[in-house]
Design a protein that fits this description.
- By secondary structure, the protein is an all-beta fold.
- Strands 1, 2, 3, 4 and 5 form a five-stranded antiparallel sheet that branches. A five-stranded mixed sheet has the order 12-19-18-15-16, with no helix packed on it. Strands 22, 23, 25, 26 and 27 form a five-stranded antiparallel sheet that branches.
- It starts with 27 loop residues before the first strand and ends with a strand.
């Protein structure tokens, strides 16, 4: 890429502070202070020269244009240098000539140099130098390697929510690869993916690979997204009182009138006829809306409520539904066990008996529905 097949060349120190096709460092060895900057340019300092002396020249090579630039020092050997004031940068400062020093490129876009051996006496240095490049001399229009990072609109929510992600990666990334476990879509190449939907509950990982011209960086956040399940809510009548499944908070409503003030317990006693339901919130903040129950005069009398809807109660082999309820359209009768599992579902036509002789002796719940609205609900005992 540069140089000659000849050995022990004095180099060509044609110009400093500029890339030049004529520039060429002198031949050398024990030159260990070599680094690569964030623009993929090669830097080197000092070493043993072909003239049996030490060098103190700082060079940079640009592999894109195949040219060298001399940034500091000269072709002269065994220079004593100039230390200046400790911790104070100055264009007059210059490390003494040396070989075998170590170097690294800092995240601050500066060249660091430590130690080495002096002249031919093989005494060693313990000085630490920093070279702060003059941007008028050498451009730094490149970026640092990318540092991946992201933020999210909400990391904890209830089931079946869609959220947005924001890339906050540093150093001007140009491409992105996101992976969202448990989500739809599960991958994205957008900088700021939106409408990432989690349709199941659980804890999910998120990863981002962000890249620019100078490399890629990966960030993985395990169990970063938590989606809680939607709680189950159901209400039923016992005598003249509506009850809801256990929850953290409750609010009762009537379909026509809306929110019922101060009705925030797990039960509610209706004062008027109407269609009632309850919205509950669990300990995770997830909300659920119950079924709707139509409150009628059948439930106004505590002593007659259950007998008015079905009879007998307790029952042996059959149940009967109050004929007044059969005036509704498309009557459906359901029986469920105490775990809310439906074990019988019948469409009722006429006042025929409902057979329950195959049920074990226990307590069961029932629902009588018309057009998906619950018009009666309660419990009965099977002998």
């Amino acid at each position: 890429m540069s140089g000659s097949t000849d050995d022990d060349l004095p180099g060509n120190y044609n110009s400093s502070c500029s890339f030049d096709s004529l520039n060429l460092p002198a031949s050398r060895f024990e030159q260990r202070a070599a680094v690569t900057d964030y623009c993929n340019r090669f830097w080197m300092y000092g070493g043993f020269s072909a003239n049996a002396g030490m060098l103190n020249d700082l060079w940079v090579f640009d592999s894109q244009i195949l040219q060298w630039s001399l940034l500091s020092g000269s072709s002269a050997i065994n220079q004593s240098g100039s230390y200046g004031a400790l911790g104070v940068a100055s264009p007059n400062n210059l490390p003494p000539s040396r070989a075998g020093a170590v170097a690294w490129w800092g995240n601050d876009n500066k060249y660091y140099l430590f130690g080495g051996t002096e002249n031919n006496s093989f005494t060693s240095f313990s000085d630490l130098w920093m070279f702060d490049p003059d941007t008028n001399c050498i451009a730094f229009d490149c970026s640092l390697p990318v540092v991946a990072g992201f933020a999210v609109s909400d990391s904890t929510f209830c089931e079946k929510q869609c959220i947005d992600f924001t890339d906050i990666s540093q150093n001007n990334p140009t491409s992105w690869l996101w992976t969202f476990s448990g989500a739809s879509p599960s991958v994205s190449t957008s900088q700021h993916p939106s409408n990432i939907c989690y349709n199941a509950f659980g804890s999910f990982d998120v990863s981002l690979i962000a890249c620019n011209l100078f490399g890629c960086d990966t960030i993985i956040r395990s169990n970063y997204i938590t989606s809680y399940p939607t709680p189950l809510d159901s209400i039923w009548f016992t005598n003249d009182t509506l009850f809801a499944l256990p929850a953290y908070s409750y609010q009762w409503y009537e379909v026509g009138a809306g929110l019922i003030a101060n009705a925030t317990l797990n039960y509610y006693v209706p004062l008027t006829l109407g269609n009632y339901y309850c919205i509950t919130i669990d300990s995770n903040g997830c909300e659920s809306t119950s079924n709707v129950i139509f409150y009628t005069s059948f439930f106004e009398n505590e002593n007659n409520q259950i007998a008015s809807a079905i009879w007998p109660n307790p029952a042996n082999d059959v149940l009967f539904i109050n004929p007044a309820l059969l005036t509704y359209n498309k009557i459906v009768f359901e029986i469920y066990d105490m775990s809310a599992r439906i074990i019988k579902h019948e469409i009722i036509q006429g006042s025929r008996p409902i057979k329950i002789d195959n049920l074990a002796a226990s307590v069961y719940g029932y629902r009588i529905m018309s057009n998906s609205n619950i018009i009666a609900q309660g419990r009965f005992v099977k002998n």
